[in-house]
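Hello Y.,

Per our agreement to keep a running log of every chain we model this quarter, I'm adding this entry. I've kept the format consistent with earlier entries: sequence first, then predicted structure.
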Amino acid sequence: MLDKNMVSILDIGCREGGAVENINLRGWQIWRVGVDLDLESLRHCKEISAYDEVVLCDALRLPLRSKSLDGIFCIEFIEHLAKSDGITFLEDLERVAKRQIIITTPVGYMKEPSSCSTLMQHRSGWRPEELRARGYKVRGMIGPRFLPMNVAYWISHILCFTYLWPEFSHAMICAKHPDAVSPHWLTKQGVLLTESMALGSPKRARH
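Predicted structure for the entry above:
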């Protein structure tokens, strides 16, 4: 489902860079920006060069210009937002992305253990029909759903029986190609509304 013509991606809720690991291993020439609220995770990403740029910010207030990056990864993130915030968030993704948005999330609400940190708690659940209604192509990831998650996970690595029927999966992957309104090429100077938001940027504000 990944658009191979993308030359820049934004990874929202990037944590330690797992979402772009496959891209990095393949050596694709893609400019990668990671966004997270956890400073330690971003520092780790910089240490291992997971991204070309990392930004400490709230995903609900992305300091990015409209149509400034080709693609957006939102991997296991949207379920951590309240439903109303999630809808606003989806609208903002379409503002920023030029070519493709990729989202993965559990099918329905999945409660996290109370031992998880506040940021890691699930606050909403999403159904395939909700994403389809917004123009996403939806496919199943881990299934079938009647099997325990750990069993379905390994089976899906061999053959994903529920790929075409995400309603019967534990999780889903959703992709959308928003209408491009700006043909300009990406430049590092043209992405951030506030350059000081970028960690390690030469223009970072002094304190």
